Amino acid sequence: MTPNPNPTQTPPPVRKGDGPLRHAPFRWLLAARTTSILGNAVAPIALAFAVLDLTGSPADLGLVVAARSLANVAVLLFGGVIADRMPRNLVLVGTSLAAAATQAVIAALVITGSASIASLVALSVLNGAVAAVSLPAAAALVPDTVPSTLLRPANALLRLGLNSGSIVGASAGAGLVAVVGPGWGLAVDAAGFALAGALYTRMRLPRRPRVIASERPRASVVADLREGWREFSGRRWVWIVVAQFTVLNAAFVGATTVLGPVVADGSFGRAGWGLVVAAQTVGLALGAVLALRWRPRRALGIGVALMAVTAVPVATLGVLPTLPALLVAFALGGVALEIFAIAWDQSLQTNIPREALSRVYSYDMVGSFLAVPLGEALVGPLAHLVGTAPTLIGCATLIVAATAVAASAKSVRRVIAA
């Protein structure tokens, strides 16, 4: 493993007193991603109330949300191939404009009263597919905007922007939907994507070296997927961490999204649960700020081990479901999650060849996203069988066990990010 696995593409030079914000491509990337998340944070709130205004059925809302998630997972691997074949900044321009178009159509249908569940499902499928192409491209673009020595602060700033944008966007979105209606909230989301697309066009990146067709025939999509799988599976530390998160996501997301509201209804109330979720987001922002200053050499091993902290909010839901305890527990969990996420991005970006980075990200995302519905589907019936508190303790135990296995792997502890 080398800090610069693709020496044919020269990164921007490092200057004395350098920082990510001194590099224009990174500034445009930060501005574009923060803008898109500001608008996109409004969308789930607006879409939820649009569906409920239309039919009043939670089942219909679940159908619309699930359609987007399934399309996202189904297209992710192909999104990685596209992002590795084409200039990633241009991919992000195209996906931003496509997302703006789909959200604008949804907004127009809702505002005019023409929306139906069938049309919302169809447009959600398109929106999920577009997101599946943009996610690997956005994650893999960072090394093209700053030198490898600045990847950690660059990722921390990006995560800080995303978290801050989520907080502001969700807060403003709730007020916007309440005052002017969900259709206009979706229109704001469309405008955010359109502006992000314009910002991506301002990025000026080093050109990737061209390969003469006679020297290397163009591979098929299947061959590209196989090559990406070799890069993913050939590194033990990569698939060990993804396996850890397959278990961790199933346990954590299932416990917090399904059983968390159940515990809140029986104790401190729904308004209190909103504060608990906000506390986790604040923890994520604090984790990004901490990562800007703390730069350990073996950041991945530390981040993987810190995932044991995410068992604390889950266990607290089971044994001490009081609002003060949960606010602290979820904030701590958010800090740990963010420190890991930044270390993970930095480790992939400095140890995976750039020409395969989007595909490795796509395999990582599929492994992570597939576990979410599994956890959500299993924890409810399990809680009915053995009780809510024992189920939550079991989920916390799974998180600790998966973390212990991953953190004990030498290949994980030895990863060095530049």
Automatic annotation (TrEMBL):
Region described as Disordered: 1-20
Comp. bias (Pro residues): 1-14
Segments passing through the bilayer: 30-51, 63-83, 90-111, 117-142, 154-177, 183-200, 237-259, 271-292, 299-320, 326-344, 365-383, 389-409
Location (main, coarse): membrane
GO terms, molecular function: transmembrane transporter activity
InterPro entries: MFS, MFS_dom, MFS_trans_sf
Membrane topology, from the record: Multi-pass membrane protein
Residues covered by the Major facilitator superfamily (MFS) profile domain: 20-413
Entry's localization field: Cell membrane
GO cellular component labels: plasma membrane
Keyword entries, A-Z: Cell membrane, Membrane, Transmembrane, Transmembrane helix
UniProt-listed PROSITE patterns: MFS
UniProt name for this protein: Major facilitator superfamily (MFS) profile domain-containing protein
Source species: Subtercola boreus
